[in-house]
Amino acid sequence: LRLFGRSSKDGTYSEIKLGTQIPQVSFPIFDFEGLDDGTSAQDHVKALTDKFPTIDPDRKMKYVESITVGTIQCITRANPWFGIPSGIRVTLHLVLGGTTLGVGAFENLDHYAVCVQNIVSLITQPEQANSPALEALRGFFPVPTAQGVSRRGGC
Predict the structure, then answer these.
(1) In three state form, how does the secondary structure of 31-56 look?
(2) pLDDT value of residue 153
(3) How far is the CA of 8 from the CAs of 42, 57, 86, in angstroms?
(4) DSSP string, 70-105
(5) What contacts 10, CB < 8 A, 6 or more positions away?
(6) What's the pLDDT score for residue 89?
(7) What is the mean pLDDT of residues 129-145?
(8) Which of the 8 DSSP states describes residue 148?
(9) Range of 42-51, 58-67, 116-125, 132-141 with top mean pLDDT
(10) Long-range pairs of 103-106 with CB within 8 A, sequence gap ≥ 24
(11) Minimal CA–CA distance to 97: which of 119, 127, 71?
């Protein structure tokens, strides 16, 4: 969410603290056209992602939580830190959540191997075959055809 601005007055960089230990930075580089009702880009993207389909573990899987999958259409916001001009249309394919481990701060990195194996097991379970979230995830990847490469799921 920190790639979207909290308000139209947001600068190109901000820093916040996670607890008292870990600084987190925000470089708002994405926005939405037509947000006139006072809704921030962060609030709008949160409302969109809240409607994405999810894959929920049907049993307790170590380090695994719900995986939310979906696509957002947005535009770039000018950011001189990265040389990004404003107004470029962008499609973001998002896979959110999936783990309780976060970004790895203060975590045993060996836990990620267990987590990734459990996520793969989760999404390859036969009962997930027709899941809307798994269909959305499949749509992110090109499919080879006799005529070249096509995209599934409208991507």
Answers:
(1) ECCCCCCCCCHHHHHHHHHHCCCEEC
(2) 46
(3) 11, 38, 13
(4) EEEEEEE--BTTTTBPS--EEEEEEEEEEESSTT-T
(5) 28
(6) 96
(7) 83
(8) E
(9) 42-51
(10) 105/22
(11) 119
Place of tokens 């995986």: 67
State whether residue 22 is helix, strand or coil: strand
Of 77, 68, 89, give the one whose Cα is nearest residue 3: 77
pLDDT digits (tens, 9 = 90+) for 53-100: 998 887 788 888 888 999 999 999 988 888 999 999 999 999 988 888
For the record, the structure tokens of 74 come out as 């947005």
Torsion from C-alpha of 118, 123, 124, 127, nearest 10 degrees: 120
Gap between the Cα atoms of 122 and 95, Å rounded: 14
Question: With contact defined as beta carbons under 8 Å apart, do 119 and 105 qualify?
Answer: no
pLDDT digits (tens, 9 = 90+) for 2-36: 788 877 667 776 676 666 667 777 788 899 998 87
Nearest to 73 by CA among 88, 59, 57, 63: 88
Give the predicted TM-score (pTM) of the model: 0.77
